[in-house]
Structures are given as C-alpha cells and as structure tokens.
Amino acid sequence: MATTLSTRGRNAACPGCGLVLESCTGPTHAYVGASPACWELYGRLRTGRDASDARDTEPRLRRLIQDTYAAQHPGAADRRALQSVAVHLMGLCVLLERGGEDRRLMPVLGRMPPRPTLDLHWLTPPSPNGHLTIADVMGAGPGQAASVEAWARDVWSAWAPHHATVRGWLDSECVSAS
Fold first, then answer.
1. Do the Cβ atoms of 57 and 150 come closer than 8 Å?
2. Cβ atoms of 109 and 102 closer than 8 Å
3. Residues 126/41, Cβ–Cβ less than 8 Å
4. pLDDT in tens, 135-166
5. How many other C-beta atoms can be found within 10 angstroms of the C-beta atom of residue 37?
6. 112: how many CB neighbours lie within 10 A of its CB?
7. pLDDT tens-place string over residues 73-128
8. Cα separation of 31 and 123, whole Å?
9. The dihedral sign for the CA sequence 148, 152, 155, 157
10. Is 113 strand, coil or helix?
C-alpha cells in the first residue's frame, strides 16, 4: 500500500515499502533498499527527532524499529543484504515470538559462528512487504510505541512464508549455543 506524505513536486515510491514521498536527493544505505526520502524518515525516527517516545529508555522499541525497517527494505540479493535481512528477521522473531529483549539479542545475534555453518540464503521478499510503513509510525503521535509494535508485527507477518527458515536459523547450533 502506498501512502503519500507530500503532494508538492515529483513523487516517487520507495523500492522497499512502496511509500510514496516527494523525490529528493540525499544519502541512502549501501545495501538497504530505501529511497533517500524514506531513509531520511527512518533517520528521524531512529534518532528520536519528531518522536513522541523516548528511544534512549526503550531498547526493545529501538530494536524493533531497526529490525522492522531493514526487513521491509531488503535491497538486492547480495551477500551484505542477505546477511542483514537474515539478522533482522531473526531479531523480529526473537522479539515478537520468543519474548526476547535487546539484552538477550546481542549474545544470540552479535557474534559470529566459529565457522560458516549457518545456511543463510536469500529469502525472496514478500510483496507487499507489509501494509504499514514508517509513515504510519511517524504520524502516530502519543501512540508511537504501539504503532512501532503494529508495524513490526505487520512486516513480520508479511514474511510468513519464510518463518520456518528464520526459526531454523535461530535454532541451529551455531546461533543458539552459549
């Protein structure tokens, strides 16, 4: 679903989420598939500018924002994007299905296996990749934390055809070993 935030000038859809924003030039990420305008919104949300919730006291909320945005903007099928999508989908699984918190994610996802035994492979992104976008969170006002949660669940649900693969990655010995 495409949402229009601005009707001035030329508009373009974000290649990741489909959000229609006024075209602009600006930085993007090397392997996250976002338009410059959408990437700028993510930067504002991530840093707490234009936000109603205090991100510095909500590590789970910060993690949900990062994982959801990256999963909704998977980029192209190259090694860095593949690894990024895998890690962020595992993060969503841990946070949304397994009662995980930020402090529990880092020991699981923040270290490399002793050798490359984890069978990460490109997962074909869903289309649409969720029905909610960062614009829904930005426009939520005081209910922003609930909107982040809804956005995360929406994107995680869109990836349902790959849930078994993501759970398998999490349950493999090289990721879950202490």
1. no
2. no
3. no
4. 999 988 777 899 999 999 999 999 999 999 99
5. 21
6. 8
7. 999 999 999 999 999 999 999 999 998 754 444 555 555 555 456 789 999 999 99
8. 15
9. negative
10. coil
